[in-house]
Specification:
24% strand, 20 strands, Dipeptide-binding Protein, domain 1, eight-stranded mixed beta sheet, globular, alpha+beta, 27% helix, Dipeptide-binding Protein, domain 3
C-alpha cells in the first residue's frame, strides 16, 4: 500500500516549533501536530475534556486535580509523566521565557506533584479560566532541563512532543515534513505524512492549489467568486465557517464628542453592516452583534444588530447638538496591513455622509499605525479587528483597569457595572454561572456602544475530494484529523 501524504502550505518559515513560544502562524500551526495539552474542547466547543489528562476534578473552587494518562510516550520513546507538566509550568513562569501564556498563569499559586500521574494545581482565587489555561502544549523535561536559554534552544527546530505527528524534516524556505506517530496514545494517524510547502507568494500558493499540488488551503472571497474554473469543484470541496474574529470601529471615549451616547447610537444606526459584507466579502460573512463569538456560551442570541435608520440617526445627532450648520466631524484611522479595512472605511465614510457626518480617513503602515496612533491613543476612531477564543477574557478589553499604557482597552471604556460583572465572572468556576454573566456583559457592552461591531468574516477552506473524514465544528476544520484518509 502506498503511503498517503497530505500537502499543505505555509506562507513563511516557522520561527520556533516550541508550543510555549510559537507565536507566528506557521510555528503555531505546525507545532499543533507535534504536541498535546492537558485538556481541550470537545467538538461542540461547550465542554472541556481530557487530552494528556485522563480526567480532572475540582477539589475546591481553587484546587484542580489532574489524573494523567498512563502509557503516553514522547517521540523519543521516553514516558510522559507529571514531572513534564510541572517543568512546563516552571518554564512558563520563568522570566527568561517570553511566552504569551505567562499572563494566563498569573493566578496560579502552585503546581504540586502527588505522584507520577497526579497533579494538583492551586489558584490564588477562583478563576473562570482555571481549566482553559492548560490548553497549551506540554514540553519534555528530560530534553530541556539542562538548556540554559529556552528562547535559543536547539529544541525549537528539533522538537520532541507527544502529538500525533513527528517532525522528520525541516528545510527552511522549502518544506517541513511530518510523519505519523506509530505510538500515539489514541492510534496512529491514518495519513502517513504531512508536508508543508513554504511559499511566501499567495498567487503561487493559489496556482499550486488549483493544480492539485496542495490538498487543503484557505481562499479569499474574490478567489472563490471570480478566479476558480468550473472544473475546480470536481476536484475540491468547499467548507465555509465563521471565523473566530470580528471587525469593529472603536470610538475614543476620552473625547467629549464620543462621550454622548446619542452620538454613538446615531453612528451605529447610520451604518449598513450587511452592505459591508456584500461589497467587501462578496456575502461571505455575517453581521457582528457583540463582543463574543456566535456559538460560544457567552454569546447573547437575544441581541440583534441594529437596522439602518437614517431618520432616527439624524434626530439623535440633532438632539446632541449637531446639524448641517454644525456637523459632526471625525477621522477613521486604520492600517493597510489588512487589505479590506481601507475599503471598509471608505464605505462607512459615504454612509455616514448621508446623515451629515463628515469623516476623513487615515490609512497607515501597520507598525507606524501601532506606534503613532494606537499605542499613544491618538485617534478619533480606529478600524481594527480582534481574534477571539471560545472562552474570551473580557477583562483585557473591557475592564476599566485595562485602560492603561500597553493595555487592550484601547478606547477608554469605563463602566462600573461592567467591571463588577467581569469581576464576578472571573471569580466563578461554575460554567453555567460564567456563561450567564458573559451574556450580561455582552448586553451591557452592546448597549453602551463603545465599538460599532461590524462584521464576522467567513473562513473559506477548500480541500481535495480525495480526503475523507473531515468533520467541521465550531473549533474549525481539524477535528479528529488523525482519522482522515486520503485516497
Amino acid at each position: 500500500m502506498i503511503a498517503s501524504t497530505l500537502h499543505l502550505s505555509a506562507s513563511s518559515n516557522p520561527a520556533r516549533l516550541n508550543p510555549l513560544i510559537a507565536t507566528d502562524s506557521a510555528s503555531s500551526s505546525i507545532s499543533g501536530f507535534l504536541f498535546n495539552s492537558l485538556v481541550k474542547y470537545d467538538e461542540s466547543g461547550q465542554k472541556i475534556i481530557g487530552d494528556l489528562a485522563q480526567s480532572y476534578r475540582f477539589v475546591t473552587p481553587t484546587v484542580i486535580e489532574f489524573k494523567l494518562r498512563r502509557g503516553v510516550k514522547w517521540h523519543d520513546g521516553k514516558p510522559f509523566t507529571a514531572a513534564d507538566v510541572l517543568f512546563t509550568y516552571d518554564l512558563i513562569k520563568s522570566p527568561q521565557t517570553i511566552t504569551p501564556y505567562a499572563s494566563d498563569f498569573r493566578v496560579i499559586k502552585s503546581v504540586h506533584m502527588i505522584d507520577d500521574y497526579t497533579l494538583r494545581v492551586t489558584y490564588e482565587k477562583p478563576y473562570f479560566k482555571a481549566l482553559e489555561v492548560w490548553m497549551m502544549g506540554i514540553v519534555p523535561r528530560h530534553v530541556l532541563v539542562h538548556d540554559k536559554d529556552i528562547m535559543s534552544s536547539k529544541f525549537n527546530t528539533h522538537p520532541i512532543g507527544t502529538g500525533p505527528y513527528i517532525l522528520k524534516e525541516l528545510e527552511f524556505s522549502k518544506q517541513i515534513v511530518l510523519e505519523a506517530n506509530p505510538n500515539y496514545y489514541e492510534h496512529k494517524p491514518k495519513i502517513e505524512k504531512i508536508v508543508f510547502h513554504v511559499i511566501s507568494d499567495p498567487m503561487t500558493r493559489f496556482l499550486m492549489l488549483k493544480s492539485g499540488q496542495i490538498d487543503l488551503d484557505a481562499l479569499e472571497p474574490m478567489q472563490v467568486e471570480r478566479q476558480l474554473e468550473k472544473g475546480f469543484q470536481q476536484s475540491f470541496a468547499t467548507l465555509e465557517l465563521p471565523s473566530h474574529s470580528y471587525t469593529y470601529l472603536g470610538f475614543n471615549l476620552r473625547l467629549k464628542k464620543f462621550q454622548d451616547p446619542r452620538v454613538r447610537q446615531a453612528l451605529s444606526l447610520a451604518i449598513d453592516r450587511q452592505k459591508l459584507i456584500d461589497i467587501l466579502f462578496l456575502k461571505h460573512g455575517n453581521v457582528c452583534t457583540g463582543p463574543f463569538l456566535p456559538g460560544s456560551k457567552g454569546f447573547n442570541e437575544a441581541l440583534k444588530a441594529p437596522k439602518r435608520n437614517l431618520v432616527q440617526a439624524k434626530a439623535l445627532l440633532k438632539a446632541a447638538g449637531y446639524d448641517s450648520a454644525h456637523p459632526l466631524q471625525f477621522e477613521i484611522a486604520t492600517s493597510n496591513s489588512n487589505a479590506i479595512r481601507p475599503y471598509a472605511a471608505e464605505i462607512m465614510q459615504r454612509q455616514l455622509l448621508e446623515i451629515g457626518v463628515k469623516v476623513t480617513l487615515r490609512v497607515m503602515e501597520w507598525q507606524a499605525f501601532l506606534n503613532t496612533v494606537v499605542a499613544p491613543r491618538k485617534f478619533d476612531t480606529v478600524l481594527l479587528g480582534w481574534s477571539l477564543s471560545l472562552t474570551p477574557d473580557p477583562y483585557a478589553l473591557w475592564h476599566s483597569e485595562s485602560d492603561v499604557p500597553g493595555g487592550f482597552n484601547l478606547v477608554g471604556y469605563h463602566s462600573a457595572d461592567t467591571d463588577k460583572l467581569i469581576e464576578r465572572m472571573e471569580s466563578s468556576t461554575d460554567p453555567e454561572a460564567i456563561a450567564a454573566l458573559q451574556r450580561q456583559i455582552f448586553e451591557r457592552i452592546v448597549g453602551d456602544n463603545p465599538y460599532l461591531f461590524l462584521v464576522i468574516p467567513n473562513e473559506i477552506n477548500v480541500y481535495s475530494r480525495r480526503i475523507s473524514g473531515i468533520k467541521p465544528t465550531i473549533n474549525g476544520i481539524w477535528e479528529d484529523y488523525i482519522d482522515w484518509e486520503k485516497k
